[in-house]
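Cross-check.
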Amino acid sequence: MSGLTGASVPRLPRGVRLHFDTVRQAHVLLAPERAFNVDGNAVAVLQLVDGKRSVGAIAGDLAAKYNADAAVIERDVALMLGDLVAKRVVEAA
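Predicted model, tokenized:
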């Protein structure tokens, strides 16, 4: 269980950032002494992680953008971000 809910507010901790690697032509999530390859879905989510929007708000924005079910997206976003919280590259309040 990720522990994140629709009300959780994720943020990138100090020293972690989403970066477009021009050599690989792909986004990576950079953390101190680590890098994570991220797919297009993760990029869409991480671009909305600003420490102000809740998981529910992020899901709502994505649902509107992609004309999809917000409940399904919220569940997937919470799981993905929960995995990144476990890896200590995302924090949530």
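The longest strand covers residues 26-31. The domain at 14-86 is CATH 1.10.10.1150 (Arc Repressor Mutant, subunit A). Passed to J.P. for a second look.
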